[in-house]
Amino acid sequence: MDAVQFWRAIITDYFLGKGGYAYINKHLNNVISLHYVDETYISTIKNTDPIFKSHKILVNGKEYWPFEFIKILRNTKDGAEGVSIIEEHNLILSVAYNSLVFEETLVKKGGNKKGFIKSPKKLSEEAMNKLKEAWRRLYSNNSENVVILNEGLEFQEASNTSVEMQLNENKETNSAEICKLFNIPENIIRGTASAKEYTNAFKMGVMPILKTIECALNRELLLEREKSSFYFAFDTKELLKGDIKERFEAYKIAIEANFMSVDEVRYMEDLPALGIDWIKLGLDSVLYNPKTKEIYTPNTDKTNSISDTKNKKPPI
Question: How would DSSP label each residue in the chain?
């Protein structure tokens, strides 16, 4: 599996299963490879202590220690297994699923309503069989058929149409509710989201997952002596970049405020450096070095010490 397939499988299990699990293949302290394990093959053995929790991981019955796996868990309370979104929000997902099943049934039947036939007198077995066969052809939706009701037969509706049940409106509402489960604005799916909605979706829907992954990587892939100096973190600058006009306006402010150089800006835009190490200073600026306590005035090309300034007597 490449990186995209690996993380796609992990995140799928994170939302739909008990969590995303990846086995850490090590030789001593060196990580050789990471291996995705389908959560359906994972089971856990937990202790009964509510304070000092511990567990072991079983894969096809073989025991492993927790530190041998990277575990990406959703809403976990024990650090062993997470809670899937299906288990937590099964009602709204069930409503959406059953709505699709009902819509499929209507399509298969050509949109015809369910109902029953009222007859003022008892029909013969032969007449009932012919009526059933004609009705079956009518609801098959693969040929043109007509049912003739004679001798006082009357069709009585027993269900509503999709328009009467407002299926389309309900489907849109269900879609919006499912988007809320993932903290993703509905306009993101429709492709009509504004820049603000895109940023909010990233911060509310994506960042919590990235933080969960970062925490798991820091916990399992770093030695205890490394945790004070190193950490894993996702570079999200590319994802949060605005359009070219917004970026260039921000770069202009940064350069004019003298806390970024031209080459630093070009590096963020994936452009080659020009070798420009200087920054612009106005002649009206006064520069102070807090380490040496020196003051430099470019306009007069003079350097003074702040202690000398304090010792000078004011003129009489």
Answer: --HHHHHHHHHHHHHHSS-EEEEEEEETTEEEEEEEE-GGGEEEEE-S-SSS--EEEEETTEEE-GGGEEEE-SS-SSSS----HHHHSHHHHHHHHHHHHHHHHHHHTTTPPPEEEE-SSPPPHHHHHHHHHHHHHHTTSSS-------TT-EEEE-S--TTTTTHHHHHHHHHHHHHHHTT--HHHHHT---HHHHHHHIIIIIHHHHHHHHHHHHHHHS-TTTTTT-------TTTT---HHHHHHHHHHHHHTTSS-HHHHHHHTT------------TT--EEETTTTEEEETTTTEEEEHHHHHHSPPP-
